[in-house]
Design brief:
One of its GO terms (cellular component) is plasma membrane. This protein is of the alpha/beta class. It contains 9 helices and 10 strands. It has a single domain, classed as P-loop containing nucleotide triphosphate hydrolases (Rossmann fold, 3-Layer(aba) Sandwich), CATH 3.40.50.300. The chain has helices at about 40-50, 70-80, 95-110, 125-135, 150-165, 180-195, 210-215, 235, 240-245, and strands at about 5-15, 15-25, 30-35, 55-60, 65, 80-85, 170-175, 200-205, 220-225, 225-230. The chain has a 6-stranded mixed sheet with strand order 6-7-8-3-9-10, sandwiched between helices. A 4-stranded antiparallel sheet has the order 2-1-4-5, with helices on one face. Bound molecules: adenosine-5'-triphosphate.
């Protein structure tokens, strides 16, 4: 039984079947990649997992509890945290202030933008945020405006902001999209470090096969809304059905 169990999930948009009978089990403390050509249904599936979309049929269980019908913040409180394709940080705030937001939210059970102004007195929160920035190698940038950071560092900060919520399942939506190779490799190293340092399950949607094969222990290939194959990276690499789905090669 995986920490995440997706059973018979279907989702239609009008006449289009975006997800068709998706069955997927993600084992605890593994990195599971979901890959597939454009339009395969990857983002739709992720949106179902975080409560942004409700499937027409099927079930999604996280650690034995249904996520369906819950609001995104409730799913977040269950221990699922998502990193978006475009970094979701507050450009007007410093790196440290950004990092304090999820720590406040975790402590107070609410997102309180105004709390930032009173943050000087919140020694404990600042200390936690600084520790997190150190582990992310962002300590030197803590007083910089986050808008000025490189794309790689923005992503690093955003991943850290998710981790501050202490999720058990981290969902990554193309975490290296638009990055230069050096930033991509730094992000791979960061995710490996995170995986080594904590009990966490990672589900990643990614187009860059270098990232997928560097990180994933299991890979599910989605094509036209349904899982085509699920296997280890070695088996997936030369799989004729996968080549066919991506390249239109005949099997
Ligand atoms: N809100 C929506 N309304 C109508 N159709 C949608 C909606 N969201 C997605 N679709 C369609 O559902 C299908 C699956 O889209 P989805 O974005 O999940 O694919 P994807 O695998 O994430 O693709 P990509 O790799 O390009 O991001 C596509 O045909 C898309 O056009």
């Amino acid at each position: 039984m995986g920490i995440l169990e997706i059973k018979n999930v279907n989702k239609r948009f009008g006449g289009l079947q975006a997800l068709g009978d998706v069955n997927l089990s993600v084992a605890e403390n593994t990195v599971h990649a979901i890959i597939g050509p454009n339009g395969a249904g990857k983002s739709t599936l992720l949106n179902v997992l975080v409560g942004k979309l409700i499937p027409d049929t099927g079930s999604v269980m996280f650690d034995g509890q249904s996520v369906l019908g819950r609001k995104p913040y409730e799913i977040n409180q269950m221990g699922i945290s998502r990193v978006f394709q475009t970094p979701e940080i507050f450009g007007d705030l410093t790196v440290l202030e950004n990092m304090m937001i999820p720590i406040f939210a975790k402590r107070d059970g609410a997102f309180r933008m105004r709390a930032i102004g009173a943050a000087a007195s919140e020694r404990e929160v600042i200390e936690q945020a600084e520790l997190m920035l150190e582990s992310l190698n962002l300590a030197d940038a803590r007083h910089d405006h986050s808008a000025a950071m490189s794309r790689g560092n923005k992503r690093r900060l955003e991943i850290g902001m998710c981790l501050a919520q202490e999720p058990r399942l981290l969902l990554l939506d193309e975490p290296t999209a638009g990055m230069a190779r050096a930033d991509t490799n730094n992000t791979i190293d960061l995710l490996k470090q995170i995986k080594d340092e904590r009990d966490i399950t990672i589900a990643i949607i990614e187009h860059d096969m270098h990232v997928v094969f560097s990180l994933a222990e299991r890979i599910t290939v989605l094509a036209q809304g349904s899982p085509l194959v699920e296997d280890t990276p070695d088996k997936i690499k030369g799989h004729p059905k996968v080549r066919e789905a991506y390249l239109g090669e005949s099997a």
